[in-house]
Design goal:
This protein is of the alpha+beta class. The protein has helices at 3-55, 59-62, 104-117, 152-166, and strands at 77-78, 81-89, 92-101, 121-130, 132-138, 144-149, 173-180, 183-184. Strands 3-2-4 form a 3-stranded antiparallel beta sheet.
Length: 186
């Protein structure tokens, strides 16, 4: 064989080897992508399982979705949704709340209705929550802050923190924790 034929055969062999290597690399990338997708799917399933165990069968749908209505939980309780509304009345900021609604929109509407029915002006939803507490803190200048957490202590602590550290207010004190607790169904 001449040098040219050897070079062509060598190039063909090299190209075939490079093609096989690229195909093997693509297959490895595909397997790695499948493994990552399987891990993500497993994590998603675990999250949904946790949410379902905490909030009933439709727990994974909850996570703040407007209009979510929880199912009746097997243990004889139903989740409650609540809202705290701030509004002006008699020259000061006042608080109204709803704590036993079947959804966030219903809780907000009920608290806003209470505010306007009681003569409040500029009524606005300050915080919402489900199956926990909405803590309200007040600063020395009368500004109020509301934060939701699962426990009364944590809700009040977070509201005071929002007042002191979030807004830089002085003389912040815990005022009250409004309960938003599960209701008995049986």
């Amino acid at each position: 064989m001449s040098f040219t034929k050897k070079a062509v055969i060598g190039l063909i062999a090299f190209a075939a080897a490079a093609d096989a290597c690229a195909q093997q690399s693509n297959e490895q990338n595909f397997r790695e992508q499948q493994a990552v997708q399987q891990q993500q799917h497993a994590a998603s399933q675990a999250r949904q399982g946790y949410e379902a165990s905490q909030y009933g069968a439709a727990g994974s749908a909850m996570a703040g979705n407007v209009g979510y209505t929880p199912p009746v939980i097997d243990n004889g309780y139903r989740s409650s949704f609540g809202a705290v509304v701030f509004g002006a009345k008699a020259g000061a900021v006042s608080v109204w709340y709803s704590g036993e609604a079947d959804s966030f929109p219903l809780a907000e509407a009920e608290a806003l209705r209470k505010c306007t029915a009681d003569g409040g002006n500029g009524c606005a939803v300050a915080e919402t929550g489900v199956d926990g507490y909405i803590g309200v803190a007040v600063a020395a200048d009368g500004t109020r802050f509301a934060k939701y957490r699962a426990s009364e202590h944590d809700a009040l602590e977070l509201a005071v923190g929002a007042c002191e550290y979030g807004a830089g207010k002085q003389g912040c004190k815990a005022e009250r924790a409004y309960p938003v607790l599960p209701r008995r169904t049986r």
